[in-house]
Amino acid sequence: MSLQLSEEQKSMVATVREFAAKECGTREQRLALTNGGTAHHNAEIARKLADLGFLGLSIPEEYGGAGGGFFDACLFIEELAYNRIPLLSFGVTLIVSHIYLNFASEDVKKEILGASAAGVPTAVAMSEPGSGSDVASLRCRAEKVDGGYRLNGQKMWISNAHYSDHILLVARTSDSGDKHQGISMLSVPTSSPGIEIRPIPTMGLEVNDVFFTDCEVSEERLIGVEGQGWSQLIAGLNTERIIVGALALGQARRAFDDTLSYVKTREQFGRPVGTFQALSHRLADLATEIECTRLLVHDVTQRVDENPGRLMPQEASMVKMKATELAKRVTLEGMQMMGGMGYAVEGGMEEQFRAVVVGTVAGGSSEIQRDIIAKTLGL
Q1: What is the separation, in whole angstroms, between the first and last Cα of the chain?
Q2: 111, 103 in Cβ contact below 8 A?
Q3: Which of 138, 162, 171, 172 could join 142 in a cystine, given CB atoms 3.0 to 4.6 angstroms apart?
Q4: Run means of pLDDT, 10 residues per run, the chain, 379 residues
Q5: Domains (ranges, CATH) in the chain?
Q6: H or E stretch including 102?
């Protein structure tokens, strides 16, 4: 294993940067593509990236992808965030695609994975009003009926639901055993009668409430084995945390580079403000932290490729916690070092802060990640 990029990977990074410079390199372009900064998915950008083969990097060729590795996909996610390409929806799509890849039937794989590689987002519905970090306490039900399942309940904080053709629903199919038993996964078309999607206003992240009222799906929509959804979900969360970490690494790098560029050109007292030790030493510390985090993220993603079936709860939680906390720190430091311009919309850093601050909460808070790491240490 090498932590240096291959020539092919370097070429991919260069292509993504060229694409971003052309399509969304200015604030005006990004605002036009994101409905004034409120949308995380642009269908035209998705189509163009799909045509370049980027949205199916880790999807096997038989399902419409490029047949590459998990590291390739995470490297793309990192560059997507770094270049501020308006397709944050892809992070969730990639997470869900890997769950389908590991557990879905061949027919469902061809349907969902082919669409994902073509630029169609998808979603997963886990959290509920009463079960966030404690996902296993979920109450949304999938009742077995003739030929399928009847769904009733509410899901909350669901990214991509309003863009997606399908939602991967995590629901309870049985009350027997402890709370981790009797959980199943179902792929639910969002066009199904009995689904209502309502947006939740937030300071940045696009999320939704999703209500299921006597919504019926066929038994072919079951993903994996009925009642085994918890073990399937754990595998998915392992992947999710690494993908979120790769995204946050890209965001941290972007905020750092923007801050560095500003303090090199902003002058006070006859010299660039970045030359004052109060700022230069802070930037040196941040540069070191970013490089350490890059090595961690790239190491773990490459280890996933080497052992695809191995769960790495400690490493995945380390990646997620370290990268998201760093992204939040860098943007806050950037706002401070940029002074008034850091707080102004024109400066762009406040927007980056709003985009990253949710990372330490969504997908399992930093406190939960620390708890997981501690348990792997026998504590």
Answers
A1: 31
A2: no
A3: 171
A4: 84 96 94 88 95 95 94 96 94 94 94 95 95 90 96 96 96 91 96 97 91 97 95 89 97 98 95 95 98 97 91 95 98 96 92 93 93 96
A5: 7-121 (1.10.540.10), 124-227 (2.40.110.10), 230-376 (1.20.140.10)
A6: helix 89-103
Task: Write the single-letter amino acid at 290.
Answer: I
Q: What's the pTM?
A: 0.94
DSSP state of 133: S
- Bridge partners, residue 186, by sequence: 169, 222
Token digits for 15? Answer: 């292509």
Residue ranges of alpha helices (H) inside 27-68 are 27-33, 43-51
* Residue-level pLDDT at 203: 87
Distance between CA 371 and CA 49 in Å, rounded?
A: 38
Query: Residue 154: which H helix or E strand, with range?
Result: strand 148-155
Residue where the block lists tokens 């993903």 = 223
146: buried, middle or exposed (CB in 10 Å: 19+, 13-18, 0-12)?
Answer: exposed
